[in-house]
Amino acid sequence: MTSAPYPQFDRFAIRAALDRSGLKLRDWQRDALIRATAADCPDAALIVAIMGAGKSIVLGLLACAWRGPVVVSTSSVMLVEALRPLIARLSGEPVGAYYTGAKDVQRITVVCLPSLSVYATASTLGSGLLWIADEAHKCERTSVDAFLSAATPARRIGMTATPYRADGGLTLWQHELLRYGIEDAITDSALVPFRVQYATGKGYADLDELVMRWMRATESEGPCVVSAADIADCEAFALRCCDEGLRVAPIHSRNRKTHATALADLQSGTLDAVVHCHMLSEGVDMPFLRRLAIRHARGSRVEYAQEIGRVLRATAGKSYALVYDPWQVTLTHQIQSPVEVAEAIEAQPKAKPAEPPGLCIDPLTGLPIEWADLPAKEKKRIWLASDSVSYVSQCALAYRIQQLVSDTGERGLWRSEPATVAQIGTLRRLGSTVRWVQSQSYRLQGIANEDREYVQALCRAYAAITRDMSRLRRGLASDLLTCVILLLCGRPSKPYFGEPALREHYTRTGAIQALRCRGVDPAPLL
């Protein structure tokens, strides 16, 4: 498709947006805007800039300057909600968002890639449309094909740090408009170099203990992010950190509502670290991060480079970043300098063969099991227990962070030990309370009608977890006891000095507020 015969961009709008926001452009951003807004700019042009260079500013200014409707696509709901306020700040007008949970259409609308085809059929786009593709390397999908068939944009501009796909080239973008590399970014003080630290000492086989020791030793350096293998691992390590006196919160796909709160707490210093499960690899702007612990070892050189890139973004007072590498993957993949990070990101990888599925983890014991060899009844038990364990772990973590329960003082690997006789006996005695709550339709003092879903989810989690208490771990039993006693019985572990008649009311109200504050979602159990 050829470019429009007349300029569709208003460069005065760019100047007005900069005056409105108070932002100052870097040289590469100014150059990119000049080239992209030129009347002879080719269609399907691609701007390649290393992570942290400030692509979002260029994207937002291009959207402001276009005289017609604008669609900005990006790869996740998190990025939609990150780009939306930035573009609104630059443009001075409302900016829409379109994905499964939002259907707000404005002149400038940020759309999640999977919803792009639905957006095109549900909206009257008209002519003169500008499509700006953030994370342009992820646009080779059927939803984008359907969008292009229905919308026919007048101009397409792509932006990415990785101008390739693992299984082939980028067919939607024919012209590279500009390339801004990592050396340029460090020279311009947009990125900082990093220092790699490895595990030291002898006789330490516990990886988590090594990571926590490093987190304590480097605590004065600033906010930290730690990687995890999966959701269960993410929550388990966060809980263990909290048990060891560290202020840590998990971030994964099941607790999206808590992401903004957790990252704000991390930036302010309320949290020492966040543990993430494949959530902070691309497109997340957190220049305040100063430490990274590579706790989960993955095989992709590109993924490691992107993960390290999260902590390289510059901010005031930040001259370097720390990377803790107990697996020595930076040596294995030769990623020990910013230049090697850029090489890893920009080098097109070979397509990887499909890997066989790994072992399944029994949610009650934490032990690996062969899923294919299990009878149907066992598969059903594990399926029911998985969401229940996740929910109870999130609730217990919320209560500990909000300091509604006192620290047990337990340390080390106690969570993985079998549940004690006392724990199992208490859980059995509490079964009558759970059954009574269910029979009363969750009419508890201090629980409003709209909060019954939390009680209902906890009752179902209790039933699933206590189905076979011979498998219970000590840590999971402790979490379940904490939740049942706090939310259903209304008995806090800390001394209560208020009116005794109102103790249960205030305890349950505080428990619900803690779950809401941390964004604990009971929906999977309802």
Explain this structure to me?
The protein is an alpha/beta fold and 526 residues long. It has three domains: 11-180, P-loop containing nucleotide triphosphate hydrolases (Rossmann fold), CATH 3.40.50.300; 194-346, P-loop containing nucleotide triphosphate hydrolases (Rossmann fold); 367-525, no CATH class. Helix content is 41%, strand content 13%. It has 18 helices and 16 strands. The strands form three sheets. The protein has an eight-stranded mixed sheet. Helix 6 (142-151) links the parallel strand 6 and strand 7. The longest helix is centred in the C-terminal third of the chain and has 26 residues, at 376-401. The radius of gyration is 26 Å and the shape is globular.
Give the SSE layout.
Blueprint: H1 11-21, H2 27-37, E1 45-49, H3 55-65, E2 70-74, H4 77-91, E3 96-99, E4 102-104, E5 108-112, H5 116-122, E6 130-134, H6 142-151, E7 155-160, E8 175-180, H7 182-187, E9 194-197, H8 207-217, E10 224-227, H9 231-243, E11 248-251, H10 259-268, E12 273-276, E13 291-293, H11 301-309, E14 321-324, H12 329-332, H13 338-346, E15 360-361, E16 368-369, H14 376-401, H15 421-439, H16 452-465, H17 474-489, H18 503-517
Helix pairs in contact: 1-3, 2-3, 3-4, 5-6, 9-14, 11-13, 14-16, 14-17, 14-18, 15-16, 15-17, 16-17, 17-18
Question: Descriptors for this entry?
Answer:
single chain, alpha/beta, Rossmann fold, 3 domains, 6-stranded parallel sheet, 16 strands, about 40% helix, globular, disordered N terminus
